[in-house]
Write a structure and sequence with these properties.
CATH topology of one domain: Rossmann fold
Number of strands: 13
Order of helices and strands: EEEEHEHEHEHEHEHEHEHHEHHEHHH
Radius of gyration: 22 Å
CATH architecture of one domain: 3-Layer(aba) Sandwich
Helix content: 25-40%
CATH class of one domain: Alpha Beta
Low-confidence stretches: none
Distance between the termini: 56 Å
Bound molecules: ligand F0G
Largest sheet: 6 strands, mixed
Length: about 450
């Protein structure tokens, strides 16, 4: 892999506050981090990145407990609005490992965060910045999980929250969370990308503080997924994983993990050859990043029509592509598109190992299986798949993929007869009639 080890940590520009500043990834312009609200570069509208004068080594994290704030040395400040988040399990899945056919397969289950997705890691940092900037209204566009996390963290901070959702395309669990945590839910007659266009405009007009992953502070929190995977995998196996496979929507996580690894390489904490290959997975019906990687393009073409049952990643305009494409390429990774059927079968396979995830999350495992079958991933690789959201986020998808409930009589004997396949007057025909009369 081609990460440049000689690139040392940059020296702080005048704009830095406590060794932290914002820098444009396109033109290099620097800005003070907490002085004014800013999401993109004033000069060229490029994406901004948080930069540090001091980059952490592993020792800096020791003795700081677990979870996102363990990694304070890699974050812009030491503590924040916390529920708390991070410290998610790195599951062993022996049967799945064998059926996929890799040396080691571990599942980093981000669905075990407080609101059931990795978004909490970004929100603990992002909402803290919002407080610091004196914002009183927070907003996001969302395919669901961001809205749930924003609603919870915003409420915790005592701030008003506004979420814009693509009407009819958000899984029930996520809307329920946003509702109960007290967000104002605005359902837009359009897809996620249209919602993001509107919320960016609202933010530009000063109507709300934007907490989508375009906000560079969100990605700082999400870096901790990568730090946790490396630390935990190393503790268990004495080496780092060869590859991390993750579902891609806006490509925020891909960008965040790449940044985490780059900073470790720059501080000397990680050798470039130990950086895992970042491998992105999209649904076939929403795969602009895959198109760009396969076509060797520098820019991602916006897809206006997108469709997939994995509604969390039903996104046609991955706003973090300029940060994520180099991440995939420079780590020697790749990107792959999978069918909805493959996603459902991976969701079932994970569930049979006891790991309950929503469809978008299962895309990582479906993608790994496809790349292994194609010989792109090799049999001797150690792989971590990221599962980004909890099964209960999308109960309809779980019902559709899982077993049918069976009606049984109200007696022990009746239940036993049913289990033996001798159901009382409600054999196969009865069940069929029952199905049609629902
Ligand atoms: N997996 C899940 C469960 C998600 O909710 C998302 C994004 C992704 C993967 C993709 O992550 O954008 O960093 O590439 N959900 C956003 C939302 C868009 O609004 O909840 P990414």
């Amino acid at each position: 892999m081609s990460l440049d080890l000689s690139a040392s940590a940059p020296s702080a520009p005048d704009a830095a506050e406590d060794g932290v500043w914002l820098e444009c990834i396109e033109c290099g312009e620097t800005f003070a981090p907490f002085e004014a609200v800013r999401y993109t570069c004033d000069e060229c509208e490029g994406l901004l990145e948080v930069r540090y004068a001091d980059l952490p080594t592993w020792e800096d994290f020791e003795g700081r407990g677990r979870g996102v704030w363990r990694y304070a040395a890699a974050l812009p400040f030491d503590e924040g609005v916390s529920l708390p988040e991070g410290d998610t399990p790195l599951h062993r899945v022996p049967r799945l490992e064998e059926s996929v056919g890799v040396h080691r397969l571990r599942i980093k289950h981000e669905g075990m965060n407080p609101t059931g997705s990795f978004k909490d890691r970004g929100m603990t940092v992002g909402v803290t910045v919002a407080e610091r900037l004196g914002a009183d209204r927070l907003a996001c566009a969302s395919t669901g999980n961001t809205s749930a996390a924003l609603a919870a963290y915003g409420s915790r901070a005592g701030l008003e929250t506004l979420v814009l959702l693509p009407s009819g395309k958000v899984a029930a669990g996520k809307v329920a969370q946003a509702a109960l945590h007290g967000a104002r839910i605005l359902e837009v007659d359009g897809n996620f990308d249209a919602c993001l266009d509107i919320v960016q405009e609202l933010a530009a007009r000063g109507e709300a503080y934007l907490l989508n992953s375009l906000n560079p502070f969100r990605l700082e929190g999400q870096k901790t997924i990568g730090l946790e995977i490396l630390e935990e995998f190393y503790a268990d196996e004495g080496r780092y994983p060869d590859r991390i496979v993750l579902p891609v929507g806006n490509a925020g996580n891909t960008a965040a993990l790449y940044k985490a690894f780059r900073e470790l390489v720059q501080s000397g904490a990680l050798h470039p050859r130990d950086v895992p290959k970042l491998t992105g997975v999209q649904a076939e019906g929403a795969a602009p990043m895959v198109e760009a990687i396969e076509g060797g393009a520098d820019e991602v073409r916006r897809w206006d029509e997108v469709e997939t049952k994995a509604t969390a990643i039903r996104i046609g305009n991955p706003v973090n592509a300029p940060k994520a494409l180099p991440g995939i390429r420079e780590t020697g990774g790749t990107a792959v598109a999978v069918s909805d059927e493959a996603i459902t079968s991976a969701q079932r396979a994970l569930a049979r190992e006891g790991v309950g995830v929503e469809p978008a999350s299962a895309a990582s495992v479906a993608g790994l299986r496809k790349l292994r079958d194609e010989g792109v991933v090799e049999a001797d690789e150690d792989v971590v798949c990221l599962t980004t959201g909890h099964l209960l986020k999308d109960p309809d998808a779980a019902f559709a993929a899982g077993n049918e409930p069976e009606s049984v009589p109200n007696s022990t004997d009746g239940v036993l007869r049913h289990l033996e396949g001798r159901s009382d007057g409600r054999g196969r025909l009865g069940k069929l009639i029952g199905l049609f009369s629902r």
